[in-house]
Design brief:
82 residues, mainly alpha
Length: 82
């Protein structure tokens, strides 16, 4: 079961990196356009693609390095049991 989770995470990482590169390439290419309407379409679509890919990378980061809330654990341990 853990293998399937790692395969899913690797696939998400792979697609996030590939589409991030495509988004950055589209963003750079949008500055060479002459028509302002086309520029806006390409610019905002590239920004949306980059933001979605960054969310994928943040997802992978928090899956690989989980955050442990030490204060919450200490507070529950300090409570007297009734």
């Amino acid at each position: 079961m853990k293998v399937l989770i790692w395969i899913k995470n690797i696939i998400i990482l792979f697609f996030s990196v590939i589409f991030l590169a495509i988004g950055i390439n589209t963003l750079i290419g949008s500055f060479g356009l002459n028509n302002p309407v086309e520029f806006l379409m390409y610019f905002f679509s590239a920004c949306l693609l980059i933001m979605v890919c960054i969310v994928g990378l943040i997802y992978i980061f928090f899956r690989v390095f989980p955050v442990k809330l030490k204060e919450r654990i200490d507070d529950e341990a300090a409570k007297p049991r009734v």
